[in-house]
Design brief:
At1g16640 B3 domain; seven-stranded mixed β-barrel; alpha+beta; two-stranded antiparallel sheet; about 140 residues
C-alpha cells in the first residue's frame, strides 16, 4: 500500500543537483550525483514538486549521469516522447537553468523527486516493482 512521505522525512535522502542547459539549444538537464547509483537507460519515477512523472536516465557527452526529459508514463520516458515535463517545471517553478534543485531519494533505484529548494512536498511512496514483472516488461521492449 502506498505511503505518504514528506520530503523532510528522516528516510528521504536529499541531494543538491545542478540544473543545466544542453548546448545552445537551451534544453534542460539535471545532473544526478553518483551517490544515487542510477545508470544510463534506467527508467524511474521522478516527481516534480510532487507531481508524478517518469524519466529515463542518460549519460551526457561529459560522462555525467543526467535526466533531460520527464514524461507522463514509463513508455513515453523510454522513448523520450510526449511533452517534456522537466522543461515545463523549470519554466513554472523558481528553478533556473544554471541554478540548482533538490533531488529526493524516495525509494532507491525506483522513485525520486525533484523539488524547488526550500519547498516541502509530500510523495506517495510505493514498494519496488516486482523483479519478475520488470524482467517481463524489459523482454517485451526488446
Amino acid at each position: 500500500m502506498p505511503e505518504r512521505l514528506p520530503s523532510d522525512h528522516e528516510t528521504v535522502e536529499t541531494h543538491r543537483v545542478a540544473v543545466e542547459q544542453v548546448g545552445r539549444s537551451g534544453r534542460p538537464q539535471v545532473v544526478l550525483p553518483d551517490a544515487v547509483g542510477l545508470d544510463d537507460g534506467d527508467v524511474v519515477g521522478l516527481a516534480l514538486d510532487g507531481d508524478d512523472g517518469f524519466a529515463a536516465v542518460e549519460t551526457s557527452l561529459d560522462g555525467d549521469t543526467v535526466v533531460r526529459h520527464v514524461a507522463d508514463n514509463r513508455r513515453q520516458a523510454r522513448e523520450r516522447d510526449g511533452p517534456n515535463r522537466l522543461a515545463e517545471w523549470i519554466a513554472d517553478a523558481a528553478v533556473q537553468l544554471g541554478g540548482s534543485a533538490h533531488l529526493d531519494v524516495v525509494t532507491a533505484d525506483h522513485e525520486y523527486g525533484l523539488r524547488t529548494p526550500g519547498k516541502r512536498v509530500v510523495y506517495t511512496a510505493t514498494d519496488d516493482p516486482d523483479d519478475s514483472l520488470s524482467d517481463i516488461a524489459r523482454d517485451l521492449d526488446g
